[in-house]
Here is the input.
Amino acid sequence: MKKNFKFMEHTRTNKLYFCFKILFSIIFSITIILDSAIVFNGDINSKLEQTHFNSIGFSNVLIGVIVFFIVNLCFLLLEIFLKKVDISIYNKKNTPKHEFRFFMIIFTILILFWMPYFLSYFPGGVFADTIAAINQATGAVGITNHNPILYTLIIKAFLKIGVLFGNPLYGLRLFTIAQEIIMALVLTYFIYKLYKDNINYKVIAIVTLYFGLFELVPLYAVSLWKDVPFSLALFMFIIYIWDIAKNNGEKLKEYKHTLYYCLISLLVMFFRNNGKYIIFLVTIFIIFLYRKNIMKNAKKFIIFSFATIFLTFLVQGPIYNKFNLNGPFNENLGILDQQICYVVYTDGNITDEQKEFINKIIPIESIKEHYTPLNIDNIKWGNTHFSEKFIEENKGQYFKVWFEVFLQNPKKYIIAYLYNTLGYWDVNKAIFYGYTQETMWPGLEEKDIGYVQYDFIYNITGKSVREILKPNIAISSAVFFVITIVLMIMTVYKKNYKYIVLFIPSLLTYLSILIAVPLAFTLRYIYILVLTIPLYFIAPFIKEPTKYKCIEESQNLKGKISNEKA
Here is the structure.
């Protein structure tokens, strides 16, 4: 009884953990209630008649209440487990050696694990966005930052290399090889960091198997879309934040570390348009977290990091605008457009004046014909006469009308939002649209009839392993989000507060998608959560480096004394 009392006392003293746990349990239960009420036919282009909410009744609420208690019971079991079992992720002896050899072995293992995917889908899967980047790189269409300009310039460089081999598109084959190598290097670097930090070899083996065998890793290595380089850059950024956290910001005193922070930040900010907001908020969080150390010894970090961020906003804002490099303004309004269309489609409360304004953006009849609750593209590209130019010229009036319609139809706006973000909050809903891209979109064949995929394994053996390599069941984006949140809460439970900063970039990426996502299902937008799972599993058990060294030195000293006595 006394032990149980002490356990409960420990739980009560960690108020932050208790608040996180209850808040998560409530929100997760609400999502399950909504999941139990929604009808979904599995088609992202389904009409409202096929995908809709049924009314929420007593049975739905009862399911939510049961889930709430189950979630809390799971947390209680985790608490008991972590309290009773002393989990150490470190080796007993600090013996990292042959570091370069270790790095090359892990790199080779990953390449070998991924080789069946590479040989089955060479030269990789091409998505519509990649074709758009190719068209911009070749000058077929004007270049814009809708597909990040940095990504387009890299594609352009590889296309120029392809010219040397007789066809620009052959450069994409080299691009696939380069992407796979870079991805293997980044993930190997993370595993190498674990090795350097004396993480247990069993943990290192599990992480290596995760990156080598979990199908979403090698499939993204052969998927040619902009989300892969962005996710790799962001993962490197998170790994560096781990270094900063381990040393309580001490690294930021040195110019070389501040320079590295700025360089990796630039990659994140220029590989995706929401990157600058993520870096800006994370940088503020880091400055606040280590404010005493930074203000005393590392003011240059504030100067250089904010100068980098300011210049990025300047380049991607006024400078891009001056040269018409920014994509259509409406690309940021997917959820807002969907909310207005849902109100019109369901004959919500809307004035004639508001209808007249909306009709100039898109004819009301087109909304009635083309609106789909999960995909804004059917409104924008479905022969609806959608006018991006009118929105561009009337931004202020657009937001005014959107807000007025919201005040008149708050419930409908919430429902429309839930539809448009379904795959990001519902753990039971997932489809393969935007999930992986191992196949080729039509379009490249028109440029070069010889540009096709090769299945080398089939050509050599007469048997293809593509069906084995392809995922049979899609995992919801919400599942990776839930895993991340639970691991963050357990990091709080273990009072490893300093490592909560590791979760911030991934969570900001997820939240930014929830604000402006154009489609209800697209795993690629939050792929960073797939890569960071091993780090987040480790986060609750990371020890202070100084503490660990003291313990190790103490144990070595005791061993020497006992040996001398013997």
Summary: Residues 329-420 form one domain. Residues 58-84 form the longest helix (27 residues). The two ends are 42 Å apart (CA to CA). DSSP finds 29 helices and four strands in the chain.
